[in-house]
Amino acid sequence: MSTAGTPVDDHGFELKRRPTRLWVALSLLAVVALLIGARFVISGNSQSPNEIPGATLVVASTESNAAEQALIEFVAREVAPRYGIKVAFRGLADSNTINRAVSEGEVAATTYQHRLWLGQVLEANPDFREEAAAPIFRWAFGIWSDKYTDVAQIPDGATIALYSDPANEAQGLWLLERAGLIELDPAVDKWTATQRDIVANPRNLKFTLFDFAAQTRALPDIDAAVGYSEFYIAAKVPLERQIFAPPPPDEFAAVLTIGSRWADTDNIKNLVAAFRDPAVQEFLATDPRVKHILLPL
After folding, report:
1. What is the pLDDT of residue 31?
2. What is the pTM of this model?
3. Do 52-138+249-293 and 140-246 show the same overall fold?
4. Is a pLDDT exceeding 50 seen at residue 10?
């Protein structure tokens, strides 16, 4: 504490009053500039790589999807250069993240879904602007069981697991009908069928619904499950546990999904052409990394 008559040490600094009004004005100008910049980006004035010549076109799937990553990286390495484009893979967390990124032009396309899945995504997210550009492959899909080696062995009252989303539940019911276990109403579109559309169930099967990963984990506790081979193979379930697997229908082929806004750009036209190249089908038929998971058309 200083006493009267004792000078206070100013440590060599001269303290001055800050020009408060000037700082407030500058702060307001900065906020306005940020708002204008944000409006510029949101209004769509920023360019997507989809419309920039020479930009790398990202094709997305889920983070853990090794088979689709192998396919996309094959296209990037062996096919895309023939079409004058650069392609890269990106793994994203889930369906909504992937589809929003495609719709907004953050990524160029995805191999993640079939047309019916895309339809339910667009219904749930009316702001998304996407379309199916070309079929690419079929996912291996079948009936799996830890308890039985043939569908004929599935007993009366057995519990069968289906996927919990409407599109893949319908595919599961289609497969059970193909196996002769149920009959669906012939007047109903089989690709939108639900359990309410079962008109014959001679073995009194019971159904339970799971998401993709949970169905695989539940296999030891149920009689059989109808699901994608990729999840069972990833979980180290022996392929011998797949007891019925006819060729999947065209309606459930994976499609290259693109953002509608960029469908007519040169980049996206060349990307679609690259995935339609015959080399892609040859890769699907011969590469061991996708065997029993991704099937050629």
Report:
1. 44
2. 0.81
3. yes
4. no
| Residue from 253, 294, 272 nearest 80 by CA | 272
Domain 140-246 fold: D-Maltodextrin-Binding Protein; domain 2 (3.40.190)
pLDDT digit string, tens, across residues 155-204: 999 999 999 999 999 999 999 999 999 999 999 998 899 999 999 999 99
pLDDT in tens, 200-246: 999 999 999 999 989 999 999 999 999 999 999 999 999 999 999 99
Q: Which CATH class is domain 52-138+249-293?
A: alpha beta
Q: Which residue ranges make up each domain of the chain? A: 52-138+249-293, 140-246
**Residue 29, pLDDT score:** 43
3-class DSSP string for the chain: CCCCCCCCCCCCCCCCCCCHHHHHHHHHHHHHHHHHHHHHHHCCCCCCHHHCCCCEEEEEEECCCHHHHHHHHHHHHHHHHHHCCEEEEEEECCHHHHHHHHHCCCCCEEEEEEHHHHHHHHHHCCCCCEEEEEEEEEECEEEECCCCCCHHHCCCCCEEEEECCHHHHHHHHHHHHHCCCCEECCCCCHHHCCHHHEEECCCCCEEEEECHHHHHHHHHHCCEEEEEHHHHHHCCCCHHHEEECCCCCHHHEEEEEEEHHHCCCHHHHHHHHHHHCHHHHHHHHHCCCCCCCEECC
